[in-house]
Each structure stands twice: as C-alpha cells, then as structure tokens.
Structure to design on (170 residues):
C-alpha cells in the first residue's frame, strides 16, 4: 500500500445521525412581570406561572429506574469560553460521569437528565413608561442550557418525549 494511504480499519469514518439537538427544543418557560410605577407590589405579582408539562407514562419505580439506566449517545457542544471546563463532570447518587466536549459519548440516561437540568437563568429589567407616563420596569426571565448537547442515539421511543419534558421544565 502506498505511503499516506490509510486503511479504513485503522481510521474509521464516524457517521452520526442526530436524534435531537437541544438548540432546537424549548428550554424552560420564560416569565414576564410588570413592575408598576406607583403603588405597592404583592408577592402574587411576582409569582411564576408555569405550564404543567405532561410526562410520558413510565410505570412504577422499577420501570423508571430501568429507564434511567438505559444508554444513550450524546455529544456536548464545544465552547470557546476559557472559563468552562473542557471535560465537565456530572454526578448522580455519588456516581461520577466525565463527558468530553465535541465527542459522541455513550452515557446512561440519568446523566443526560443532569445535563438537561443544568440551566442558566438570566433576569432582565428593561426600563419602560406606563400609560400615564410614569417610569416603570419590566422583569423578564429567560433560561438557557449550561451544556448544549445533541442526542445522537436513543433506542427507546419514549426517550425524546421524556427529554422534551425535562427541557421544558423551568
């Protein structure tokens, strides 16, 4: 064999079909509150109103535990942020899982749940004027994932609805 030509056995081509991309799913539920210019504010004015998201039926405790132990393949998005860890650690019940960014990794679903629940919440308070011309502020909350990811393989048909439910939770 000529020099520089590789055999496919030694350098396989990895083809990945992405099952789900976290960037294409709703993360959390945005909340908006108006702060009045005058008068008092009650706790009810700032109560978050969350939509209850139906969960796929998983059965009893043993079925849920078995579901969470199933393997899925994910790829964490790479980042140029120097403050982010290159190989983040996720822990469930004292068991650690390190996942390298940018590389497909087979992990148990319980660790995917931790990845999907790792969210940032940003609060914005833009200045506004109410109908009477008084100064006021609006309060808006937005959620984003700390570790954006792609779900490459999930053999369970209930996996994607379960993931969408986890991501939609605030």
């Amino acid at each position: 064999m000529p020099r520089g030509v590789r055999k496919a056995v030694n350098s396989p081509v990895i083809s990945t079909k992405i099952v789900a991309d976290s960037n294409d799913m709703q993360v959390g539920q945005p909340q908006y509150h108006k702060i009045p210019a005058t008068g008092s504010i009650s706790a009810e004015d700032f109560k978050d109103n969350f939509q209850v998201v139906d969960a796929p039926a998983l059965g009893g405790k043993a079925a849920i535990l078995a579901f969470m132990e199933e393997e899925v393949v994910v790829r964490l998005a790479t980042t140029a942020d120097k403050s982010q860890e290159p190989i983040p650690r996720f822990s469930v019940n004292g068991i650690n899982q390190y996942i390298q960014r940018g590389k497909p990794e087979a992990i148990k679903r319980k660790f995917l749940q931790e990845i999907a629940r790792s969210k940032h919440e940003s609060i914005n308070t833009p200045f506004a004027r109410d109908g009477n011309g008084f100064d006021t502020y609006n309060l808006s909350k937005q959620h984003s994932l700390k570790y954006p990811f792609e779900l490459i393989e999930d053999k369970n048909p209930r996996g994607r609805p379960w993931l969408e439910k986890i991501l939609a939770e605030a």
About this structure: The chain is about 15% helix and 30% strand. The longest helix spans residues 159-168. Residues 116 and 166 are 7 Å apart (CA to CA).
